[in-house]
Design brief:
- The complex is a heterodimer of chains A (290) and B (172).
- With 290 residues, chain A is mainly alpha-helical.
- Chain A has 14 helices and three strands.
- Chain A has a three-stranded mixed β-sheet.
- In chain A, helix 4 crosses helix 6, helix 6 packs across helix 10 and helix 6 crosses helix 11.
- With 172 residues, chain B is an alpha+beta fold.
- Chain B has five helices and seven strands.
- In chain B, strand 4 and strand 5 form a beta hairpin.
- The radius of gyration of chain B is 22 Å and the shape is extended.
- The chains are: A mainly alpha (290), B alpha+beta (172).
Chain lengths: 290, 172
Amino acid sequence: MSRMQLPLLLVIALALVATFPVRAFDLNNLVKDLDEASKKLDQNMDSLNKMRGKVSTREEIEIGGNLIAGLLGAAPLVDDAELQRYVNDVGFWVAAQSKRSELPWRFGVIDSQGINAFAAPGGYVVVTLGLYQLLENEAQLAGVLAHEIAHVVRKHHLKALQQTMKREFWSELSVKTVDDKQDRENLRKLIGSGLQLYTTGLDRKYEFDADMRGVVLAARAGYDPYAFLDVLTTIDSINPEAAELTVLMNTHPPTGERLETLASKMDGRLDSYASGEDNADRFRQAAARH
Amino acid sequence: MLLGLPVQAAQQGTVVRQAPVYADASLAAQRVGSIDAGVRVTLFERKGGWQEIYSEEKAITGWVRVYQVREGDFGASAVSENKEDSRGFLAGLATFSRKASGFFSQDSGVTSSSTATIGVRGLSESEIRSAQADFDELRKMQGYASNKKRARGFASAGSLKAGKVPHFSGSK
């Protein structure tokens, strides 16, 4: 229950006491009434948020799951349970340092030689095998995942989708009842726009934002935050015309510019965390089969 | 334990972007020179976002930003040795660099069609846009999820300690 609702609930509770003075002594009934009032309030908040174009966390997760299912349709998970669990452990630990640690965070390595990573609303993150194979240690992996986690925490994809689709769309959208034909159609449209977004990219300012927030999340998790600069440096050394980089380059600011911007922001702020762990041995073990 | 002996295996590296060189690992330190991209250097200590280097060519010792140098030799000889290493994985940046120049550059002697075959299977722009959702894979992904308890154990096994670090904007 959000903080905002508490005073309101007190008012409702008082009103209930005043309206039903006899029942007010029956604690069970009072709790039940309160429960119902709270449920109504939640529903009202939901529809109010809808009108303002806001999406509930539950809907966010639903939308994200559909988007990731789309990406998985294009490139399935690498068939290696140990690797997948390892990436989930690293990702979960980093996400636990964010202000949205309560999301159901899910991570995966997908079977593509393209060099890229994707996030979807609600706590979904995938890294391509092509990018994974460029990494040297766990701190670098943490840096990549942290960048994607930052996109989710800041709701960058949702914001972008909200800019693309009209407000009326969002007030009509109801992803809970996918039995309804209209809802299904709306959801399909939304997923289509979301997948399109993976090829056109977010506003470049969101990428810089995720870079800067990601390194802080990695530092919070005890990793060397500079490891992410190493990843960008590696990417920067690859011919940007390479087929493996097409989508990444089309959807992100030039790597050199990201490096300059990020390094100058980190300067003097994160130096003392550079002694963070890189857990290279553990990483190599998990990656050994690829 | 070796007491007080600075045991540093010096490694070779290359400046990958034009780098001002500072007397110490700080932008406030005195600037002692500048090195162009492509110049080979010896790498010493790394501190924060800084790397201590020595350039024989320029006869300077000093500090540059870590992203301005890379381990390994990026000279012209790099292109031909583009075999996968035995693990099928990348032993280091230098190895990768050789591999990358072989695999990825358009003019490296590797034809573009062979680049395409090892290329972006399943994730080209059009394939992403026209992807059909795979909910079985999504369920599989859910199945690999970690949880609080597991993540804490994982962190402690890797000597990872959570700390409070504010975002640059000051927000949580």
